[in-house]
Amino acid sequence: MEEEEAALSFKDLGIIDELCEACSQLGWKAPTPIQKEAIPLALKDKDVIGLAETGSGKTGAFGLPLLQALIARPQRLFALILTPTRELAFQIKEQFDALGKAIGVTCVVVVGGIDMTQQAVELGKRPHIIVATPGRLVDHLEKTKGFNLKALKYLVMDEADRILNLDFEEEVDKILKVLPRERRTMLFSATMTSKVNKLQRAHLKEPVKVEVSSKYQTVTKLQQYMLFIPCKHKHMYLAYILNEIGNQAVIVFCATQQSTLKTALMLRNLGFTAIPLYGKMSQNKRLGALNKFKVKERSILLATDVASRGLDIPSVDYVINFDVPMHSKDYIHRVGRTARAGKSGIAITFVSQYEVEVYQRIEQLLGTKLDVYPTVKEEALVLEERIAEAERFAKMEMSRLDVKSGKKGKKRELMDDDTEESLGVRKRIKGKKKDKKFRK
């Protein structure tokens, strides 16, 4: 029985040959557990709520049935996919472009940070699929002449819990009011919240719930560690660990934009190839930062939780929680950036004296105690003077670039190629010669 299940193909699930061929070209050899459960239901025109751990193939689980329905009943403005972040929207579009290439599917991204006029022109061409963040879609529904979704046949919410947790509830309500009642609706998320429960009761017709993981969990190939260190030594241990693991792909999650920028500047001063990603960067710079990390021009991505959901960067070796996430479920999403698509990965969480209680809630959620990440204290302490110097540099640069919160005026953005000088790559702290690479 197990062998039969393992041999199950996309064709066995009811997917047509054209889409099976597209899956093959994308390297999707066999359906994932969530795809096995959700696709047959969606093909029977059922509303679906899909719950599965992050990195488990949720995009394919809603994308394939949606495209198959579009092929059967071709129509412009056929489907709307709502996502919480811009990056996830572009990623979903990439997958739809790849899956629908042979059948001529048009897909448009509608997110903030990009000129509305250009988006209005693209919407005027009436694409088959719109991938949008709720806020910008509401702007177009209210202001773009002639644009409406009255004929829509499919609505998908990816990371549905996050959409509602990011204060999009008002926008989502506005969107749902202008959509036709006769439609198929699919909600997908790694976690289920009371807000998503509320949404399913209000807007889904006899939904079928598909749950691949009944409890909050991380993938089995992920090794998880913690490190209890004083708050003042966090940067020191971060540099020590990055130096030890060599030139591997690492995402470092920080709690705030301020912390992200300061840590990025400090690491760049030490010679690491670090680049930050945070919500207030312009869309071009956010995509630029992400692409540089994907193609390994930069080995360290410093990020706020804007990067914790849905981003598929297969080559991430390490995730480091520089700050413990305030919400336990966010931990699952952060560490889900590594150990994707069957690969292994390592997650390390720094816990300071101020974060013990929050961290204990994460252990409670996971139902396990994490091992302590092995470090040599004496080797880390050797770096103390260099780190203090780099922190002073970062503080001066942040002050000079006027990136402190609360300041009026337009904030300067960092970490694109035009600002290498700002990052201390050309000049280190005044009076010092240019350092050699910090790495061994």
Compact summary:
This protein is of the alpha/beta class. The protein has helices at 2-6, 17-25, 33-43, 58-72, 86-100, 116-124, 134-143, 160-165, 169-178, 194-203, 234-245, 257-269, 283-294, 328-335, 356-366, 377-381, 384-400, and strands at residues 48-51, 79-82, 107-110, 129-132, 154-158, 184-189, 208-211, 222-228, 250-253, 274-277, 300-303, 318-321, 345-351, 371-372.
Treating each run of at least 4 consecutive H or I residues as one helix, how many helices? 17
Largest sheet report: 7 strands, parallel
Strand order of the largest sheet: 3-4-2-5-6-1-7
Terminal-residue CA separation = 52 Å
- Overall pLDDT confidence: 82
Helix content: 40-55%
CATH superfamily of the largest domain, called what?
P-loop containing nucleotide triphosphate hydrolases
Q: If you consult CATH, what is the topology of the largest domain?
A: Rossmann fold
Question: What does this protein look like?
Answer:
The strands form two sheets. A seven-stranded parallel sheet has the order 3-4-2-5-6-1-7, sandwiched between helices. The protein contains 17 helices and 14 strands. It has 440 residues and is α/β, with parallel strands linked by helices. The model is unreliable at 1-6, 403-413 and 415-440 (pLDDT under 50). The chain has two domains: 2-211, Rossmann fold (3-Layer(aba) Sandwich), CATH 3.40.50.300; 222-423, Rossmann fold.
